[in-house]
Amino acid sequence: MKQKVAVIGLGYVGLPLAIAAAECGFEVIGIDINETVIKSLNLGVSSIEDVSNIQLANVLKSRKFTATTSYDELNEIEYFVICVPTPLTDSKSPDLSYLESAAKSISRVLSKGCLVILESTVEPGTTRDLLLPILMDGSGLDSSEFELAFSPERIDPGNSKWSLQNTPKIVSGLTLQAKNRAMEFYSSFVLHLIEANSVEVAEVAKLLENSFRLINISFINEFSEVCERLGVEATEVIKLAASKPYGFMEFYPSLGVGGHCIPVDPLYLTHRANLVGSANKFINLAFEVNDNRPKYFVLKAEKVLKGLNQKKIIVIGVAYKSNTSDTRETPAKSLILQLRQKGAKVFWHDNLVKHWNNEDSTPLGAGFDLAILVTPHNNLDLTPLGDIPMLNTRMSL
């Protein structure tokens, strides 16, 4: 008989993991502080695109999955997997309040022999220096009486090729036994596991992944502006360069970076780097470049329309990436704000988001002075716009 698993945080990371574990036979209890999400999940309505209602209905029917807001229902749990958000404070420093709260709640129901796995992105040293003491203090257990592991999430919402199951997964532990138990757990539903020598190495590896992406996206965004001045199309240049079978990786122009990972994770690295007296010039410069992208397109819009005051503009796509309704850290927010500050009447259209920032998606049609394409989803039909001029944030010309 499979053991019981508690997954803390049922968002883009936790819910796919919880369903995958339930589908392979584990008895899974999902915990989330959002009562609306919990109610919907127990009714068989998924809150994210990567988990279908059919998948959810199947694990609910088999009684392998249930969702709740209460830790009181956690008993005889062998595996705790923490998938809570780790955002930034207003001052752009790590906000570990969700992690600390989850850890304290887990500690009250933690028993001897349990394995706790952290998947949330953190700065190096967090698993050992923050999470472990909280679990020990709240449970009254010694560190030798339970196991603690770290396995950074690698979820890409809306990616139809790479899922939780086939994306290689890094696994580490404070002890060899913790790592081995975590490997055994994940091997039930993940095809390729990679061992890390320490939790700190795994923590930094996660931060490197998204810092690398931030820097390269920023470079390409700046490069696309150079291409525009040169009168060449950046996307064609990139495709030609990508024909080289080694030493090059494709990145394409955009309005900026969004989602939880790329706008956030590099700042966890710089925060820790500053504490140990190390510079991070590339990361800081990359943020500067990306933060200026919305302003760049506001100026282009102003030039096209010869002024923005009272002009009607439709922004197409407010999700941070194509084919998902995820609006976390979307650069469309800054674009819309800056256009409105210039006096423009700004509307937005997104057939997946539909409702955002207390506003509803506006149907595409005639009557706008300008359209700005930010995030196109599959099957997006632009023909209702007719001959309305358009700025494409994904191309240089």
CATH class of the largest domain: Alpha Beta
Helical content class: 25-40%
Counted up, domains total 2
The DSSP helix count reads 12
What is the SS-derived class? alpha/beta
Order of helices and strands: EHEHHEEHEHEEHEHHHHHEHEEEEE
Shape: globular
Mean pLDDT: 95
Largest sheet: 8 strands, mixed
Q: And the CATH topology of the largest domain?
A: Rossmann fold
Q: CATH superfamily of the largest domain, please?
A: NAD(P)-binding Rossmann-like Domain
In total, the number of strands is 14
Adjacency order of strands in the biggest sheet = 3-2-1-4-5-6-7-8
CATH architecture of the largest domain: 3-Layer(aba) Sandwich
What integer value in Å does the Rg equal?
Answer: 23 Å
* Low-pLDDT residue intervals, each spanning 5 or more residues: none
The amount of beta strand, in percent, is 5-15%
Separation, N- and C-terminal Cα atoms: 60 Å
Detailed description of the structure:
There is one protein chain. The protein is of the alpha/beta class. The chain contains twelve helices and 14 strands. The protein folds into two domains: 4-197, 3-Layer(aba) Sandwich (Rossmann fold), CATH 3.40.50.720; 199-397, Rossmann fold (3-Layer(aba) Sandwich), CATH 3.40.50. It has helices at 14-23, 35-42, 53-61, 97-107, 126-139, 176-186, 199-230, 234-241, 265-275, 281-291, 293-305, 332-341; strands spanning 4-8, 27-31, 65-68, 79-82, 115-118, 147-150, 169-173, 193-195, 312-316, 345-349, 355-356, 359-360, 370-373, 390-392. The strands form three sheets. It has an eight-stranded mixed sheet with strand order 3-2-1-4-5-6-7-8, sandwiched between helices. The protein has a four-stranded parallel sheet with strand order 10-9-13-14, with helices on one face. Strands 11-12 form a two-stranded antiparallel ribbon. α7 packs across α10 and α11 crosses α12. The longest helix is centred in the middle third of the chain and has 32 residues, at 199-230. It is globular and about 70 Å long. 43% of the residues are buried.
